[in-house]
Write a structure and sequence with these properties.
heterodimer, A: 114 residues, mainly beta, 4-stranded antiparallel β-sheet, 11 strands, B: 110 residues, 0% helix, globular
């Protein structure tokens, strides 16, 4: 089955530690996205990538970093500079350049501070 | 980028029709209107999408007036399982940066 896989489902971070959230898709989509969702809130865009080796900052990129070395993978690193990382993180992908193509989402990773 | 405004919450009863309206005054010519449904601790799921006029699928209808500055998601005969958050998303080709609004929390009561 085609889809988006996020791992791990739950992740704990210690103070001063960097952690990396995995996002893999086998939909052959060019564009990938990372969103952050706080309890009871909507989705806020962190980073997005339209093509391999290229990515752009979203609305709340500070304290986060990404890479896009392969079409299938778009890992997100939550750095120690992100002082309030506790949230639900969602990865999505879609066909790039097609105006009407909807995003497909993974099941999310919930990050908490120890 | 088109900003969207939706009601924060709505209540309904089983079997009723629910209409959720989204305002997007600065929608661009290339932008599509897409609605998603999200249950707790899950990723959003695509419901319906349109560009203009009316679109209908097996779960919902989407009404878009001629000026495209708003859209209305219509859910016929809701059930308890339709209790979720519904997001209106406006975007398209330009930049591929898709920003969600705050969503509408729908509570369906028995």
């Amino acid at each position: 089955d085609g889809g988006i896989t996020q791992s791990p489902k739950y992740l704990f971070r210690k103070e001063g530690q960097n952690v990396t959230l995995s996002c893999e898709q086998n939909l052959n989509h060019d564009a990938m996205y990372w969103y952050r969702q706080d309890p009871g809130q909507g989705l806020r865009l962190i980073y997005y990538s339209q093509i391999v080796n290229d990515f752009q900052k979203g609305d709340i990129a500070e304290g986060y970093s990404v890479s896009r070395e392969k079409k299938e993978s778009f890992p997100l690193t939550v750095t120690s500079a992100q002082k309030n990382p506790t949230a639900f993180y969602l990865c999505a992908s879609r066909i790039a350049g097609q105006g009407g193509e909807p995003q497909h989402f993974g099941d999310g990773t919930r990050l908490s501070i120890l | 980028l088109a900003k969207t405004t939706q009601p924060i919450s709505m209540d309904s009863y089983e079997g009723q029709e629910v209409n959720i309206t989204c305002s997007h005054n600065n929608i661009a010519t290339n932008d599509y209107i897409t609605w998603y449904q999200q249950f707790p601790s899950q990723g959003p799921r695509f419901i319906i999408q349109g560009y203009k006029t009316k679109v209908t699928n097996e779960v919902a209808s989407l009404f878009i007036p001629a000026d495209r500055k708003s859209s209305t998601l219509s859910l016929p005969r809701v059930s308890l399982s339709d209790t979720a958050v519904y997001y209106c998303l406006v975007g398209g080709y330009a930049g591929n940066m898709l920003t969600f609004g705050g969503g509408t929390r729908l509570m369906v009561k028995p």
